[in-house]
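Page 47, continued from p. 46.
Same chain as before, 140 aa.
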Amino acid sequence: MPGAPLWEDVIGNVRGAEKTIRRRMRPLEKIIPELKDAETRWGAVRALGQIADPKATEYLLPLLSDPDPDFCRVVAEALGKIGDPRALPILEKMVYGNKFRLLKDYPSKATRRAELEVRGTIRKIRRKIRQVQRHQSHPA
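Result:
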């Protein structure tokens, strides 16, 4: 039957697409547990930033309370890559609530770098919000 191979190709393509979707979903599920391990959390945060899945925001936001400004900088960088507006109030509170001035146990250069990264992340997220708002007010 001439139609049979075509139908089998369609089914094969659908199954292939399902596998691809499942593969893309797995990294987030695999990375989240790594955030609890002191040896793997830095890499896990960077990986979540690369994936840029907004679902990661809820796992990254609590990490901003870490006392290490370098780690906070990496978390802020990941949040900037994700661009989720939910991060904005917390990042603003960090900068304008003087969190970085309270971190006296770390060198000032590390603290300053972290503060600058958070400020940059705030700008990125605000820019993304403005783009979405412009797009919504002027649909194509």
